[in-house]
Amino acid sequence: MMNKSINAGLNTTKRDTRSNLIHVVFESSVLMNAAYSSYDRVLLLNFRSGATYRFRKVPHAIVCGLLVAKHPGRYFNKYIKPEYNGVPQ
Length: 89
Description:
Mean pLDDT: 85
Number of strands: 6
Order of helices and strands: HEEEEEHHE
Shape: globular
Number of domains: 1
């Protein structure tokens, strides 16, 4: 079960324990939703603009930071975009 601070600002959080997949729907003007496989360390982000990007080798701690960020778009621009190459999908 996710704690209250992680659920703040999120519409939905689902975890598939069989594949270690986390799916999150954001209440954000930039990000629409995210899916993360902790097994593969792959983060898939869908943006409000309609763009979708796949980021590889993203540590679990970085994804947790995105989930608890007050402003997920700002967190993405500061910690994910400059460090991990996003591949358009």
